[in-house]
Amino acid sequence: LHDSPLLSCPSTDSVALIINNSPLDSGTTVSKMRGLVLPFIFFNYFESNMKVKLGQSSLHENYTDFFLSAFDEESKRTACFGMTRKVPNDSTYTLELNFDTCTTYSKYSKRVMFMYLVIAYSWSVSESGSPAETNMQVSAKLKKAGKMIFEKTYPIKRTQPFVQGNTQKLRSDFVSNMVESLSLSTKQCIEEIITDINNTFHRNGEPVTANTSAVLNQTSTSITNTNISTEVIIKTPENKNSITVKSMNGEFNIGDKIMFYNFSTNSYIKATVKEIKEKMLIVEYESFGKIKTKELNKTDIKKI
Q: Do 57 and 30 contact (CB within 8 A), yes or no?
């Protein structure tokens, strides 16, 4: 989806995009997870769970080609530079991307129930899918004539809800949901990279020259205009130590009660906000009598 707001700015610089590694495994893999068996005399219940990892074999288009074409299309909408497929030279900027991580997982379950009623019996078989989780991290280096202009890492985490539909299409819808999670994570990553390059080329309205080094601080606050998430960090005047984060899911404060989806238990868990970062929240929750902490994306949290 290319739905980010159009941006009109001069495109005086050319950037050649280079992807140095193959992000996905060649095939989608399925591994067995812990199941459940209840073998009673009159009632039997069997549950098998499978962990599915998305691979290239489930995609019609090569993912690297998709990333390149999506980046090119988005740059035409919102970039203050032009994309080139020519061999880079000293007058061309090169953007080198390395996929440190690019995985999409989900869980698929099958349940069989058999009930014996002496003179009759009843049995049923059901299948279900869980939300997909994408974990992507891309390292970007912008160079010109061998000189580093900026270097930054883009971590993207996303949970894509799965809506149960037609039973006959359940398995295909399950895989499609994993692909959608990967696609939307890719969209967010591309938009953030283009925003940072725009800011580098046109800081204060002036293009960056070849001799200027603009190394971005990875821990600094970056305000981006994307369709995935928009947040602003604000310090309230009443209490300078209180931080409020405005996002698409509402405002978050330290101490807020929230809910998040837990992939391993296939359920929502209540937690408390303990720390606020640029795009992530550190939450505290109780699991089997123990207090645990977890880092979550703000877009994956619901405020209670």
A: no
Give residue-wise pLDDT tens across range 198-253: 988 876 444 444 333 333 433 333 323 333 222 322 233 333 333 333 333 457 78
* Tokens at 206, concatenated: 């002036």
CA 23 to chain centre: 14
Residue type (1 letter), 239: N
8 A C-beta contact, residue 274 and residue 293: yes
Please, which residues have CB within 8 angstroms of residue 137's CB and are 6 or more apart in sequence? 99, 100, 101, 102, 153, 154, 155, 156
Q: How far apart are CA 58 and CA 28, in angstroms?
A: 6
Q: How far apart are the first and last CA of the chain?
A: 30
Other beta carbons less than 10 A from residue 260's beta carbon? 18
Q: State the Cα–Cα distance between residues 111 and 123, nearest whole angstrom.
A: 11
Instruction: Report how far residue 89's alpha carbon sits from residue 144's, in angstroms, rounded to the nearest whole number.
Output: 8
Q: 3-state DSSP: the chain helix, strand, coil percent, rounded to 5?
A: 20, 45, 35
The strand pairing partners of 125, in sequence order, are: 112
pTM of the full predicted structure?
A: 0.64
Distance CA 240, CA 200 (A): 30
